[in-house]
Amino acid sequence: MKKRALISVSDKAGITEFAKQLHELDFEIISTGGTKKAIEEAGIPVMSVSEVTGFPEILEGRVKTLNPMIHGGLLAKFSEASHQEQLSEHQIQPIHVICVNLYPFQQTIAKPDVTVEDAIENIDIGGPTMLRASAKNHEYVTVVVDPVDYTTVIEELKANGEVQKETRRKLAAKVFRHTAAYDAMIAEYMTELTGEETPETLTVTYELKQSLRYGENPHQKAAFYRKPLGSVFSIANATQLHGKELSYNNINDADAALQIVKEFTEPAAVAVKHMNPCGVGTGEDVFSAFTKAFAADPVSIFGGIIALNREVDKATAEKLHEIFLEIIIAPSFSEEAIEILTGKKNLRLLTIPFDEEAKVEMKLTSIEGGLLVQEQDRFGLKDANVTIPTKRKPTDEEMKALELGWKIVKHVKSNAIVVNNGDMTLGIGAGQMNRVGAAKIALEQAGGQSEGAVLASDAFFPMDDTVEAAAKAGIKAIIQPGGSVRDEDSIKKADEYGIAMVFTGVRHFKH
Prior knowledge:
The structure is a single chain. The protein is an alpha/beta fold and 511 residues long. 37% of the residues lie in helices and 19% in strands. The chain contains 18 helices and 20 strands. The strands form 5 sheets. It has a 6-stranded mixed beta sheet with strand order 8-13-12-11-9-10. It has a 5-stranded parallel beta sheet with strand order 3-2-1-4-5, with helices on both faces. 38% of the residues are buried.
């Protein structure tokens, strides 16, 4: 009796050649629908599933392979005498090789005009059932879900007359990953459709984008995965024009820089080191913006990541070229800019479609043994219930500066303080164990430039010492959430020094 192979695929890349090779190896081929037609047109003998089951495809093709004549052939233990007896009794032939990939659910829901009905119809039932059955029975059945594995299967069949057990197990593991990812996408789609915010289980799936040389440190293994149908306006979907491969830390820092520069509609430049901004500038054009970002901290920017929200032109490229940088992110680079910047062979140049709307995604943070899930912090000053508790109100110029500081402090590790003027940062205090310590760092970095500047704090002041330090440095206006039981102390201190203080009512902790 000939060995049997069942082939039913939506991705038909390479399938006729695979079927041809199986036929030449004396396999009897069974197939369905469009796959059967493609194999027939290639001149390869093929049987329909209906011929095997003795039952027609029904319900618009929803039911065709869900039949004991198919699943008995997939799940039988070929070495088990009782299984062999039952196969013989019911005239079921074993299936030795199965090649299946699934209805294109991901591609379907990616369409901007997809209907719920179309999405539901592209949920495959028979395919995953056959794949899981075959993968469970991989002791006897070779199951193929990925066209990249066709060559391996054929080569082993030619060399050994069968696919090796180790290979069958690897292919089975790939099948379970594939069906799990498929179900995860369906679960996510259906969960969003029903508006469930905290489902009783959370299953997520990501696709390997690249293996990394190492993680945060050389002794840590790492890889970079991308969310299927994730935000296009992201580092995961950036195009690399030049430079060596991105590292784990590069990716983290680049994402931090991108999230900050997303805050701005006017020309802006952001410099990041270790996931904290070290300089942010805005201006009439990208050259002016970067000049200010560089001037904000010309020491820390060394070896940093730069994100700009306008095309990099020749003048900006020449200035960028003067500094040692790891990555430059921008919507695009002019031809002259590329010629200048590619002179540094290791400098990574990334483009991201800034004209794409940012997709709101949940932020996932792994902890040992668990996962924290939260909304991304998209809250801006326009969303806040702003109050001004001090006697002096900020001037229009000060308010503009406070808005800038509030955009930036959201992206600085807590405890966070930002000192700035209307178009650039002057000093940043990040990740300190107490707020006045963060303020002292930011004010010291700003130096004499803090005279007449403003200060932003990501959380309230637990006491008035930060206001005191700010006043002595010449700060004229402060923005902070408010909400401390000792707010009145800070308000009194601000009034004592003639400082205007704005309360937003919302904190921006970042851990």
